[in-house]
Specification:
It contains 21 helices and 15 strands. By secondary structure, it is of the alpha/beta class.
């Protein structure tokens, strides 16, 4: 089936050339997007043209609509469009024919699990760095949210044709690692009967005592408590993430980075942007968009936090990645400009680095927020969430809000097996469809069903919803956020349930039964793809 966007783009450009655009003016960019309730496709070109042509956008929209109507047969719009309206301040809304949507359902049935897949990424190499929690304790729910977002985003981008790699940046040296070692050593001393003082800034969690007890019980000869702690905690983190369905392609060690000489090599590339002052080495980042210059080497010769980060990102580009995506916590917001400045100084487009701030997640139990403090060891870990609600609910709930918004995770709701639980609601729709399909004729060839029999409002609404799936994925790509996919799946499940509550699938005339089985097979296909991209299971029975 012809791509409606290509047909529409040609029609719009033709209209602009012939009736609107001054001869010497460039064709402005335009967007085709889903509209909330005005048409199936909405075009905002008239709004963009208003200031250029010094004319009211609504007047321009009326002119374009009239042109489209007169030339629909020639430009191909009449094949897809049943009505075109200028509405609001200047939107042009296209109402598509029912046969167009039936054709889309046919495409879903033929493309199966590849529906929505595209080569839009053209193999572009993308590195998504996420979680990257210091190996000083088990993963918290904040890290868990980053893990869910990063992994689902990687799945979506891969589905859209990007070559994606997942990476965990391991901060395995520095002050926090030293404190970890001293915390374990002090707890061990206490277990051995010493009256050891335990400072407030040491790690307080029970896991520290557990590590110390293991050393004592196994009579281990530990030479470096920090190294021991990192190794043990990292094994726990890897296991938790694997159980959460998150597997990293690379674990990148900051310690190895420093020992490799790559920091000095990066500074050699930055030499025109470095200067000395008061014994320290400064990065002249202000001209590159930062609010002030930054120290990279202190007067005592030690590196600041920025130094290895510059070298790390320099190495990312050297490894062939052309789009870097970092998922960071909200406490890193002020760090973005200095890192983008370093990317520019290294000769790369700062827009090739996308930093996504993933806001915190608050855990609620019995309607009350759970107080959390990582240092004091008072927090709910990823492991506790997995044990309490399972992988599916955990992943779905962590993705249910925009990454830029704080998230409230209600453990009690996540455990419910009712429509109140969003992931249960979506999975139940999928399982319900699987059950119906199993009860249908064994020899049913869905692709051969007579889809023209699908005329009911609820049937056509359901097909329209399926048609929106590829658009939803591109919204996720453009916003660098998989959140919209959870919204889409909930809406699709709702539209399906409304259809099924009103219309029987089995027990109709043979051809009608086949047509409706084909329809719900399309729903099963799309929901299945969506759940897979989110890393959520697809139960065939519930």
């Amino acid at each position: 089936m012809k791509n409606i966007h290509i047909v529409l783009e040609h029609a719009v450009h033709e209209a602009l050339r012939e009736i609107v655009r001054p001869a010497d003016a460039p064709v402005p960019p335009f967007e085709v997007s889903l509209s909330g309730g005005f048409g199936d496709l909405s075009l905002n070109a008239a709004l963009k043209l208003g200031s250029l042509l010094k004319a009211p956008p609504r007047k321009i929209a009326d002119q374009l609509v009239e042109y489209f109507r007169k030339n629909g047969d020639r430009n191909g719009l009449s094949e897809f469009v049943r009505e075109i309206k200028a509405e609001g301040p200047g939107f042009i809304n296209f109402y598509l024919k029912d046969d167009y949507f039936r054709g889309q359902l046919k495409d879903i049935l033929s493309q199966k699990s590849d529906f929505g897949r595209s080569d839009a990424g053209a193999g572009k190499k993308v590195l998504i760095e996420f979680v990257s929690a210091n190996p000083t304790g088990p993963l918290s729910v904040a890290h868990a949210r980053q893990a869910a977002v990063g992994d689902a985003l990687a799945n979506v981008l891969s589905f859209l044709g990007f070559s994606v790699q997942r990476e965990y940046y391991l901060n395995d040296e520095g002050n926090q690692i030293n404190i970890l070692g001293r915390s374990i050593e002090t707890r061990l001393a206490a277990l051995n009967g010493a009256n050891a003082e335990f400072p407030e800034n040491y790690y307080q969690g029970d896991y520290i005592t557990g590590l110390a007890r293991r050393i004592k019980e196994k009579n281990l000869a530990v030479k470096d408590f920090s190294e021991y702690g990192v190794k043990e905690i990292l094994a726990v983190i890897e296991k938790e993430l694997r159980d959460f369905g998150v597997v990293f392609d690379c674990w990148y060690s900051q310690k190895t980075l420093r020992e490799s000489g790559k920091i000095d090599a990066a500074f050699a590339l930055l030499k025109d942007h470095l200067y000395k002052e008061e014994g320290a080495t400064w990065f002249r980042s202000t001209p590159l968009g930062d609010d002030k210059d930054r120290v990279v080497i202190k007067s005592d010769g030690s590196y600041t936090y920025l130094a290895p980060d510059i070298a790390y990102h320099c190495d990312k580009y050297k490894r062939g990645f052309s789009w870097l995506i970092n998922l960071w916590g909200p406490d890193h917001h002020g760090y973005i400009n200095r890192l983008k400045a370093s990317v520019a100084a290294l000769g790369h487009d700062p827009d090739s680095l996308s930093v996504i701030i993933v806001q915190l997640a608050s855990i609620f139990r019995n309607g009350k927020p759970v107080e959390m403090s990582t240092r004091r060891g008072q927090y709910i870990s990823l492991r506790e969430v997995l044990d309490e609600v399972g992988v599916d609910a955990a992943r779905f709930f962590f993705l249910m809000r925009r990454t830029s918004s704080q998230l409230s995770f209600d453990l009690e709701v996540a455990k419910k097996q009712t429509a109140e639980n969003p992931v249960y609601y979506v999975q139940y729709a999928y399982a319900r469809i699987c059950s119906i399909l199993r009860s249908g004729p064994e020899d049913c060839v869905y692709e051969e069903a007579d889809l023209t029999l699908l005329k009911e409002t609820e049937e056509l609404q359901l097909i329209r919803k399926l048609w929106q799936f590829p658009y939803t994925l591109h919204i996720c790509r453009n916003t660098i956020d998989p959140y919209m996919l959870t919204v889409y799946l909930q809406e699709t499940a709702e539209v399906f349930h409304k259809f099924y509550d009103k219309h029987r699938v089995l027990g109709q005339a043979e051809e009608m039964t086949k047509a409706r089985l084909a329809l719900i097979k399309g729903v099963e296909t799309v929901i299945g793809i969506g759940l897979g991209l989110l890393g959520v299971s697809k139960p065939q029975k519930m």
